[in-house]
């Protein structure tokens, strides 16, 4: 599914029918606000959506495949290009947000050769700058080191809730990179290039992220989920759900617990990434023949993560000669049992213990594994993290098989509840594993999940990084109202929400389209 970011001719190319009326108003308001701020019309709008992850949680950075879909909520950047304010050595970026009380406007004069980002300060424009930096790196590769970036005036309108697990950051970074590429004369933007640069760019903001969100934001196609795999190269293809009766719907429910990776990264997200890398190295050391090295730069995206994936191949190659001919799910099962035997410490491993097994000093361990992003931990739960990753990778494959193997599909006109329940069970198992093994859920999400299942959801779980944010629920169309009422009664009514929050608490989402450009006439 290679190709370039589409240029939309109308909003119908971008949004599903149910969203069209409100989006048309929103876009018109964006353009007129742009005019009133800058005194002229924007030239184009760059758009990238948020996403909900259906299954495959916390495995993208270990390079296992995932199944997200884009949602309607998105980031819009209205842009005009203007080199008038450029000097010999700088260009000017003016950036404002329609929510100006929360996200104040800024003006930057940026040196041609470097975009400074202070990741220690939490500032909304950092996400733009990281997209800018990534896009300019690519442009310099194409056009030479003395490439002179254009000045831009920008107005942003983002509807993906921040810290809500729907990937506002990836939507913002992808839209920013797309806007910068376009402003600088790249009229055809390759989706793979854009995705890869958005993945790497987001790291500049201080999160050691995987590649799911940016892939979903850029590649998604209206009406389908997206199967994203990362090895041997980044690939994304649309996946359809078979028709069921009643139709299956995805409900997305906010917990209103804000999980801010910028703040909690050292004990949550970034720590998990480190634990996964350490687990891979540990397993490699104890299961493979002495001296087997994991590729230093394992990933196709130039990410040095010592991904599980490499361990997995290395292990299956060595551990059982026969296993490479086994189906992947069987290999994963084998890896789960190898892990259970090799990593027995429930309470976690100290730096000293891990360093001894890796045959390196604690200082070396720190510099190899914990220096790029800050983490705070005395013990690393290698067993639990590895078991989650391998079992979750397996569930993604099982889920895909249910979706794509016609042998599993319910017959037309037949009762589809048994089929739906199988899909739902896998989602529920993901939630259990996230809660108990990966420890990335929270009591509020657990509540939403329990309430939904009681009211008729087939499968309910957290989506995205967790520790708050959003949950996703596979609900038959005829139970949607019951599930919503149950949440209102048993969860939301207790939070004292504003009307606006109530409005945004639950979204029925149809799979939306990915990044697009719109030329304003
Ligand atoms: P959120 O926090 O929902 O944007 C994060 C990562 C993903 C993935 C999920 C967990 C970023 C930008 N995204 O998503 O890559 O690892 O957590 O599956 O950090
Ligand atoms: Mg994010």
TrEMBL record:
SUPFAM superfamilies: GHMP Kinase, C-terminal domain (SSF55060), Ribosomal protein S5 domain 2-like (SSF54211). Residues 423-492 form the GHMP kinase C-terminal domain. It comes from the Eukaryota. It is an enzyme of class 2 (transferase). It catalyses: alpha-D-galactose + ATP = alpha-D-galactose 1-phosphate + ADP + H(+). InterPro entries: Galactokinase (IPR000705), Galactokinase_CS (IPR019741), GalKase_N (IPR019539), GHMP_kinase_C_dom (IPR013750), GHMP_kinase_C_sf (IPR036554), GHMP_kinase_N_dom (IPR006204), GHMP_knse_ATP-bd_CS (IPR006203), Mevalonate/galactokinase (IPR006206). GO terms for molecular function: ATP binding; galactokinase activity. Keywords: ATP-binding, Carbohydrate metabolism, Galactose metabolism, Kinase, Lipid biosynthesis, Lipid metabolism, Nucleotide-binding, Ribonucleoprotein, Ribosomal protein, Steroid biosynthesis, Steroid metabolism, Sterol biosynthesis, Sterol metabolism, Transferase. It holds the Pfam family GHMP_kinases_C. GO terms for biological process: galactose metabolic process; sterol biosynthetic process. Its EC number is 2.7.1.6. One of its GO terms (cellular component) is ribosome. Pathway: Carbohydrate metabolism; galactose metabolism. Residues 33-80 form the Galactokinase N-terminal domain. Residues 133-220 form the GHMP kinase N-terminal domain. Belongs to the GHMP kinase family. GalK subfamily. NCBIfam families: gal_kin. This is Galactokinase. It comes from Cercophora scortea.
